[in-house]
Amino acid sequence: MKTKKLFSRYWLFVVLISSFFVTNCEDDDKVNPTEELDGSRWVTVAGALMGDNPGDGNGGTMIYAVSYEDAIDPATTINLYDNGEPVKSNRTARLQVSEDGNTMFNIAYAGENGGEFSRFGVQGGANYVEEDVTVSIAQYAGTAPRWGKLYDGDKTGIAVNIANIAANNTNSEEPFKYYRGTATVLALDLQNVLISNYKQYEIALSEQEEAEGHAIFRLDAPVLNQAGNKLLIGTWMRKYDPATGDSESEWERLGTKTVVVDYPSLENPKVITSTVAFGDCSGYRSNVNFLAEDGSIYQATQRDPNGSHILKITTNNEYDNSYVFSLDQALGVENVYVQTWRYVKDNIGYIVYQYGDSDQSYVARVDLNNRTAEKVMDIPNDADLDLFQYQGFLAYGDYLLMAITPVGKDGNIYVFNSQTGEVTKGATLANKPGNHYIGVF
Known about the structure:
By secondary structure, the chain is mainly beta. It contains six helices and 29 strands. The radius of gyration is 22 Å and the shape is globular. It starts with 5 loop residues before the first helix and ends with a strand.
């Protein structure tokens, strides 16, 4: 693939000249897709390989890097599955990227290397150079930890896990009181490739909630508050039958819960609860908790019996239960399920969702101030578009880049202008049967 095309240079020149007049004559705060990022910045595209069934993503992960200029150029074709580099991971990798796009971070998910953190230099195409330093967090957070990179200048990653959920009286004659697991919250120094801190503890719910069998099943989607003194971690809840210990498939759900711990000590876990929504806020393969410019944290819920909501947590690290943003109501459909989402800026973000009984994915632009959501019409309306495992967005200035391909079909990188709502096509993404693209970083 040629990385410098006459067409793309011409197109880039036109955009820059046009944006000069627009931004200088109308609005100095607006940016265009080429501002704030070097046009030669590496953009990594990731895809998930089919395992046993189309779209399951269980065959591993491939990555490939192109210049930013090529990523937004519709004349470019990226053939990831023929030309890409496999990522060390038994299943779909949980990838993170440095702010400048030059370094990839990965914790292998399951398999013989599960829990091993590694770092790669991005050098274009399939050329990812693994550094000769690694660290395993498996003995602390298991071989399949959930983790995320904090927005602190590429300094810190946070891995979390819940293990060994059991009743308090499993090996005794004591009365039943609770089901709890051992929670691990672990900080990774991304620059020196070492474990900088970790804490393990049981996280208690209320006495009544625990007596009924409710427990935190999973932790994920960590985010640092604006003050930098609290880490907020999303939860996935389960309920166990106190008499048998079996996990219940249907129950009356509790309000959405987030765990708050002191940072950087990782001590003093506290559970806060929303009275607005009743779903989980752990996400799946990507973060669903984001810090806005005003210090509020917004989170999307899943598995909510009333459809997904976006919730607001204040600078006091408590839920704002006066903030009600039902995506069912905003989109005018029923049973919205947010698969993932990304905050961009100025209280605007984009959600990836499905609704009703369909597995088809859609994208909507959300206005957090006005609590409105508008479906994006410029992406494929295809029954095979399933973005459940999607994890990678590239957000910068007003813009968001996203890789969108139906399972087994070609697609594109799309460029979303969060402030105007405009959508343009970038590079074509060549696909293979059963595979799908899961991110652009």
